[in-house]
Amino acid sequence: MTLAESDDPGLPVEDISAAAGERTLDRIASLGGGHGLFATLRAARGAADHVTAVVTVADDGGSSGRMRRELGSLPPGDLRMALSALVRDTPRGHLWEHTLQHRFGGHGALAGHAVGNLILGGLTEVMGSSIAALDELGELLGIRGRVVPMSPEPLDLEAEVQGLGDDPREVTAVRGQVAVASTLGTVRRVRLIPQDAPATDEAVQAILDADLVTLGPGSWFSSVIPHLLIPGIVDALTRTTATRVILMNLVAESSETNGFSMERHIHMLLQHCPSLQVDFVVVDLNSVQSSKERRHLERAAERLGARVLYRDVREDDDRGRFTDRHSPSKLADVLREFGGPGSASDTTTPREGDAGAAADAHR
Known about the structure:
Number of domains: 3
Low-confidence stretches: 1-20, 348-353, 355-363
Radius of gyration: 20 Å
Number of helices: 14
Family: Belongs to the gluconeogenesis factor family.
Keywords: Cytoplasm
Function: Required for morphogenesis under gluconeogenic growth conditions.
Organism: Corynebacterium variabile
Largest sheet: 7 strands, parallel
InterPro entries: CofD (IPR002882), CofD-like_dom_sf (IPR038136), Gluconeogen_factor (IPR010119)
Helix content: 25-40%
Oligomer: single chain
């Protein structure tokens, strides 16, 4: 008997994460990787009946990097995290989440490996397909959705980085996701190797079938922008009838985007994908407070064809202090705004908290 066929005693079948509000969307496709995608998926599972995670596959560090090098497989880490984010919010779901995320200790060959990575690696070898393995594990976990890689082959990330040499204007090529994410220089541009990497059919179809497509938050150069470097993904984003939403980071990262304004984050998306068009950019209320910064951000969003929505999406520590993480429940409330009659996607008139003067009232 799988989890999908069994009940957790004393708890409702539906996810507790949906208790704060009714699901208003049928299908959400969320693009990203790592902890940023994890937060989005936690929110999306409470806002839609079916959630597909479209996950980056360029990780080359830790357990994922070791399995990629030794088995020639897709790096499983971000895929594992996405599955963990979508498990049911019940005691058994929590058990499986912790098991998938658990890393072996000690000093032997298994030290540092995540249990979920090994399960995915084994299933992939047995079934002969990473997507079949992900679907099988998803069914075992009873998730309402799918986890699919953005490309069927492992990719490499290479960045043009400025400021690593004696001459601050010198540009150095830095290769590898871990190296790019931890560089001390300023990342100017990234590329995928191979540059003509295909998209998985499942990722493309998820984007085309969705009511809502999200991109971000997350490591901008290693988890967000790589999706915009896959021609098949970009084409699907252009053709879909879904509402397309960029979820901005709360703060600039200390490595990849150190010192970047929200406006510059958007410029980087356009630099890598000039044809990108989206409908909304969601920004935390307190991340951009000055009128000048907001005007610059809104002008940048206009180049995407997007409207800026200012919303409270930051997690607090239950003592009134904000963290640098998104709150799944708050973010779920925002995602619900894009579904149903009178939704944000149905109107072009700014509502309270949207771009412009109405948002300034929240300061």
